[in-house]
What we know:
The protein is of the alpha/beta class.
Amino acid sequence: MQGSITRGTTxxxxxxxxxxxxxxxxxxxxxxxNHPLVVDLGYGASPVTTVELAARxxxxxxxxxxxxxxxDPARVSAAQHAASSAVSFGRGGFELAGLxxxxxxxxxxLRQYPEEAVIPAWDRMRAxxxxxxxxxxxxxxxxxxxxxxxxxxxxxxxxxxxxxxxxDVEKPSDLAARLPKALIHRNVPGEAVHExxxxxxxxxxxxxxxxxxxxxxxWRSTIELLQAxxxxxxxxxxxxxxxxxxxxxxxxAPRLGDCPHG
Length: 262
């Protein structure tokens, strides 16, 4: 079993922003079309976010099965009261307990590990994926208002997404403290993720005339400015409740020293 017991901090609706993104992601939908098994790795001291994930993904596939994995046997035992036909719990780490899931969600797990643990953990999870499977590995603040995650496939990291409450953030770079472990130490001059955040702040400032229409309208203008400045920002379909920034991994891949690359 690969991994260490983490702090286990969690809370109701803490992962709502990543879950909203998951249910609309074409890659996640494709993976679930192929196979109904989902793993929630490192759900913490309470199983509440695992149960929420199952409920939200059931709108994508009615027969979805979510298995919450934890290394701590006490947490697994305590979670059994929340088990159902759609949700179960067991012991497991980055090897995913021998399962072959279509989707893996691993939130606020690698944040508590050293940076050099990222690549081995990614590789171990990727090796366990079902065909066309994906991994969402990221972090968020205690209330889930500021989030970021990497989407990985068997081929490696594909995209980085930042998502936040429009009314909780003054500028995009406020998300820097919640970058995934692969990038959080790379927000320095010379690194690509730093350049993205600087550009996003600049475009956000330029879009200030849209502020009277609300932060969502201002963010839509910011996205257009980023695209005009050469950033390959992916546009999410439909009306967005959150401010969301998704870019290809190549846009933010670390440049200096040994680090995760696709």
